[in-house]
Design brief:
The strands form two sheets. Strands 3, 4, 5, 6, 7, 8 and 9 form a seven-stranded mixed beta sheet that branches. The chain is 36% helix and 16% strand. It is built from six helices and nine strands; from the N terminus they run αααβββαβββααβββ. The radius of gyration is 24 Å and the shape is globular. The protein has two domains: 36 residues; 184 residues, no CATH class. A hairpin with a 4-residue loop joins strand 5 and strand 6. It is an alpha+beta fold. The longest helix has 28 residues. Helix 4 packs antiparallel against helix 6.
Length: 239
């Protein structure tokens, strides 16, 4: 007895349905990306969006595009001032961007725009929530040790120029809370106290925004501060 074959119309309809599934998934995926620009690699970066899959690559692209970086700050309603270029040679500073509303102490120095953008994200996504969760207070000030220094790495007479030579780096030493407490990298890094947990959490949080993050875990030269920079010549370092 001959076996029954599937209905020809049924097979055709099934193939057509299966062919439509990838199309439907692609349309749904595109609509989802439109609703979640933080995950969409083609959406313009806005620092007000939550961090997403595409955020880090978009931040990295700003390191070689000052114009787009400043457009991102404007789009994100981040107050800043673009200062005129200064210097020449290895210590020339063609990109001098000063944040207008940032609790740095003793002053708010001019940094490169990519550093400014990373500082803004770091404060919002790492420092502020960690201070509230672990220390029960908001941040009043973030103390720094400096930004610009026309020198080679570790002050040597030879070797690569430091990212501080172009103000593409900042050294963070301590955090002062609204309740008056001061959390210092030098004195509070070791141990398991909430202050030490806070410092480690904000160090780790910086690694999502900056190209290089160095802490006391890196070497003795960083025992009293975090070093953050946006050097785009090397692979990212977070330690």
């Amino acid at each position: 007895m001959a076996s029954k074959k599937p209905n020809t119309h049924f097979r055709t309809a099934r193939r057509a349905l299966l062919a439509l599934i990838p199309v439907a998934l692609a349309i749904a995926g595109w609509q989802w990306l439109q609703q979640h620009p933080e995950h969409n690699p083609m959406a313009p970066l806005n620092l007000n969006n939550p961090p997403g899959w595409a955020t880090r690559s978009k931040l990295a692209a700003l390191r070689s595009d000052v114009g787009e970086c400043r457009a991102v700050l404007e789009r994100s309603d981040v107050a800043f001032t673009a200062l005129p270029p200064v210097g020449d040679g290895a210590c020339a500073r063609p990109d001098r961007t000063q944040l207008g509303d940032y609790p740095l102490s003793p002053d708010t120095p001019a940094v490169t725009c990519p550093v400014a953008a990373a500082l803004e994200l770091w404060r919002r996504d790492s420092v502020a929530p960690a201070a509230r969760a672990l220390l029960g207070s908001n941040i009043a000030r973030i103390e720094h040790l400096g930004v610009f220094s026309c020198r080679r790495m570790y002050g040597g007479s030879e070797g690569p120029w430091s990212e501080h030579a172009t103000a593409n780096a900042i050294d963070i030493a301590a955090f002062v809370l609204d309740d008056g407490r001061r959390i210092s990298v030098l004195t509070d890094w070791k141990g398991d106290a909430p202050e030490a947990q806070f410092l480690r959490q904000v160090r780790d949080g910086a690694c999502t925004s900056f190209a290089t993050v160095l802490s006391p875990d890196y070497n003795a030269a960083h025992a009293d501060h975090f070093h953050f920079d946006q050097d785009d010549r090397w692979s990212s370092v977070c330690r």
